[in-house]
Design goal:
Length: about 70
Amino acid sequence: MKAAILEKREVARNCFELVLETSLPASKAGQFVMVRVADGLAPLLRRPMSIAGHEGNRMSMIFREVGKGT
């Protein structure tokens, strides 16, 4: 399923919070979602990202930018 990016903000050096609008069922902080970052084959594998929070149709994830795909 696709999700719309509502906000991306830097919370620390090279660490970001990503807020998405999603229709996923309620999730809890600490659970993971597998994220495909682009259409096509590059990068081939999805990225596991931990859910930081989920309220209503808004889900947030915090991640560190380390290379292609993040």
